[in-house]
Amino acid sequence: MRNWIFLLLFSAFLAGCQEPAPPAATEPAAAPATSEAAPPETTEFTLKGQVVSVDAAQKSATINHEKIEGFMEAMTMPYPVPEDGDLQKLKPGETITAKVSYIRAESKYWLTNVEVEPK
Question: Residue 40: its pLDDT value, please?
Fold first, then answer.
């Protein structure tokens, strides 16, 4: 008999430990103000380096750059350069500064605001 009482009390205890269901919504959630998704967050970093090569057909340039604080170590790598005006400034051997625009969510990066350092 004691086992039945214990089992009954234990079952009641377990039933009381369950999380309550969330309250039912009385109104539908408000729709966003626009149907467009927010644009992905773009971060900019300053790059300083030397142009190794330029591929006008691919709109890219390989840059041997210094460490980019908060972004990456010094290395030589290709960067997309989508703006024709920036691409035309790039010549092998030139020292440049530029902005690296980076969208973390898409792992996408490119160069903008290219400036050739005076010799």
Answer: 86
The H-assigned helical ranges of the chain are 2-16, 84-89
Tell me the C-alpha distance between 82 and 90, whole Å: 12
Alpha carbon distances (Å) from 99 to 18, 30, 88, 118: 54, 39, 16, 18
Considering all CA atoms of the chain, what is the largest pairwise distance in Å, rounded to the nearest integer? 98
Class of domain 46-116: mainly beta
Q: Give dist(CA 41, CA 32) in Å, integer.
A: 19
Q: Which residues pair with 75 in a beta bridge?
A: 65
110 three-state secondary structure: strand
Q: Name the band, by pLDDT with cuts 50, 70 and 90, for residue 78.
A: very high
Q: pTM of the predicted model, to two decimals?
A: 0.67
Instruction: For residue 119, give the amino acid letter.
Output: K
Show me where the domains of the chain are located: 46-116
CB 33 within 8 A of CB 69: no
